[in-house]
Amino acid sequence: MSNITVCARFRPLSSKERRDHGDALCIQYVDSETFIFKDEKAEELTFSFDRVFYDKSEQIDVYRHLAQPIVQDALNAINGTIITFGQTGAGKTYSMEGPGVLECDAVKKGLLSRVVEGIFECTKSSDDTSKYSIKLSMVEIYMEKVRYKYICYWYDYFPAIRTSRDQISRS
């Protein structure tokens, strides 16, 4: 993977969107890297990215392509960042957190929980002498205000000794 990967993600339509507008989309699928946008004037604009995830794409596919390499690099002491950008309702929260706490299941959960699980899965398979200090954070910038949504620290984490999250000291 290159230093910067730019992807487009189209979340599934909500039940309200389906009710109000049907299944009509302004996006025409081309392939895994390109889509065509049709505006109100029926003009077609073609966009290409490193990867395009359409509304039928599964959360696990987004994780495997985008976040899993970052998780693996992080365990080799390389910092990683995932940035989502878009207008309100575009699907940033859906991609990062999933559809919602009550609706979330193993298939629909977002990148955040998959990254946390991925980090701990990778540390389990490391050698017995490895020691980790892990810091995860998630911020939201909205209307020029920064809101911390998720900050978690694990210091002196020895996967060979501590195997459950309850035994991990947190500060």
UniProtKB/TrEMBL annotation:
Binding positions for ATP per the UniProt entry: G86, Q87, T88, G89, A90, G91, K92, T93
Lineage: Eukaryota, Viridiplantae, Streptophyta, Embryophyta, Tracheophyta
Name by which UniProt lists this protein: Kinesin motor domain-containing protein
Family designation: Belongs to the TRAFAC class myosin-kinesin ATPase superfamily. Kinesin family.
Swiss-Prot/TrEMBL GO biological process terms: microtubule-based movement
Record GO terms (molecular function): ATP binding; microtubule binding; microtubule motor activity
Pfam families: Kinesin (PF00225)
Nucleotide-binding is among the record's keywords: yes
InterPro entries in alphabetical order: Kinesin-like_fam (IPR027640), Kinesin_motor_dom (IPR001752), Kinesin_motor_dom_sf (IPR036961), P-loop_NTPase (IPR027417)
Domain called Kinesin motor: residue spans: 3-171
SUPFAM superfamilies according to UniProt: P-loop containing nucleoside triphosphate hydrolases
Keywords of this entry: ATP-binding, Motor protein, Nucleotide-binding
Protein's organism: Cucumis sativus
